[in-house]
Amino acid sequence: MMRTWVWALSIPFLVVGTQTPATPDKAPTPLKQGPLAYYKGHCARCHGDLGGAYPDDFTKTKSKEDLTQVIESMAAGQGGAPLTVTAELEAQVAFHYAIDQKTPFLSWTSADGNTLKGEVTPDTVVTATVAGVDQKVEILNRTWKITLPANAVISSVVVHAKTDTSEAVLDLGKSSVSHAVPTKKTAID
Fold first, then answer.
1. Which residue of 82, 94, 153, 156 sits 20 to 30 Å from the alpha carbon of 134, by its own alpha carbon?
2. Is residue 10 part of a domain?
3. What pLDDT is stored for residue 184 in this prediction?
4. Is 8 a domain residue?
5. Angle between helices 86-101 and 35-42 (to 10 degrees)
6. Distances (CA, A) of 53 to 48, 58, 115
């Protein structure tokens, strides 16, 4: 009987001792190359600043796969800078959807200590929250910057970019870019 009692007491101790720690921050990582900077350096000379030379609705007739293939081919060819990292290519595709939809676009490009930086399309108002609390956002040219409070978790950061007609949301708990890339294999409706 004594053995059973000691054994029963040790089980709760073992359970407590083997509990997993709080879930670690699983936020996506910052992009190594921001889509706006890449586009400005490798695409704008032919396609215009922010796609000014693209026809209206240029993504409407292309599936995600088709647009990805076109961008990948152009980057390796005329752009002279192949997009070899999947996340960078997907971010460029997402940026092109934002260009075509004429909506703001945000990307996350840097985490240095408690300072986060990223890109934003021009002529937008940028706001941010960390765990639902408003944070100061600094804007310089096409770059946003947030200094996180102590012990803040990156995955709790949400950045908004607004214009008079639309809004983009960058949730760092889910993505490094504000626009989800459509997953349909058929042309976008």
1. 94
2. no
3. 45
4. no
5. 80
6. 5, 11, 35
In a domain? residue 29: no
Whole-angstrom distance, CA of residue 145 vs CA of residue 136 = 9
CA-nearest of 43, 128, 41, 51 to 78 is 43
- Our count of domains for the chain comes to 1
**pLDDT, tens digit (0-9, with 9 covering 90-100), for 110-156:** 999 999 999 999 999 999 999 999 999 999 999 999 999 999 999 99
- The DSSP 8-state label assigned to residue 137 in this structure reads -
- At 154-177, the pLDDT tens digits run 999 999 999 999 999 999 999 999
* Helix extents (H) in the chain: 2-17, 35-42, 44-47, 64-76, 86-101
Whether the Cβ atoms of residue 178 and residue 170 lie closer than 8 Å to each other: yes
Distances (CA, A) of 32 to 5, 85, 125, 187: 57, 9, 24, 29
- In terms of residue numbers, what domain contains 132? 35-171
User: Which residues contact residue 126 at a Cβ distance below 8 angstroms, ignoring those fewer than 6 apart?
Assistant: 106, 120, 137, 139, 144, 159, 160, 161, 162
**Residue 93: how many other CB atoms lie within 10 Å:** 25
Q: Whole-angstrom Cα distance, residue 29 to residue 182?
A: 21
